[in-house]
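ugh ok fine here u go
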Amino acid sequence: MTRWRWLFGLLFVTLFAPGFVCASRVERVEGEVDALRAQFVEIQQRVNNEQTQLSEMIVRADLKLAELEELQRKANELLTRNSVDLSLQIENQRNELAELRGRLDGIDRNVSLLSKEVQGIIASLGSVGSSAVLLPTESEPLFTFAQQREGEKNWAEAKLGYQEFILKFSSDPRVEEATYRLAVVSAAAGQHQDAITTVRGLLTSFPNSSYRNDAIAIMGESALALGNCEIAIKSFETLVDLGDKKAKSRLSQVKSACKN
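structure:
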């Protein structure tokens, strides 16, 4: 009995042992395949993720490139426009320069003609040059000169003297008197409009002048001489309002003369 068991066991091992060995190998291979498959899936997932990230980066890069191209286009347009504007400005500047040069040439011609005229005038005055008036340069001698010429009834030189004094020594306290004397000699020389203008200047600069009434009388007489009855009458009416006793009778005479 024991012998049969041993033979049966030997037969079992001989018949079925190789099958067990093959089954173990298959299971091991399938496990390795499953591991490889899982590893492949992981790798594929990683690749897919990287592809997605790369695609997003490409999209962003395309957008950035589009922005840069738009900026370049705008820059080119701006550069072109500025270039055109600059060209126009340069052309305008050239035209203005040409115009200024033309004006300058015209001025040069006018100056040349004027110079010739002045030289002709100087030449024509050469014969009377010795009689030209030389006015003193200092205030005291100049004022004295004007007074002396007025005393000599040399109205033209007296007028020149007073005018020069007022112009050069405007801060001198005698300017008020010089202005009044200028009105006097202007009226005496028959230059009545100048006399009226001078009196108005005196009354404006020195409204409380001690020469006020006499100056207004000069303005009235000069206006009457010019036939300007309105100013003449108004001047003597002002004197009457200021209490000038002589003005009332003169006002009547002026009104009568104006009626005629």
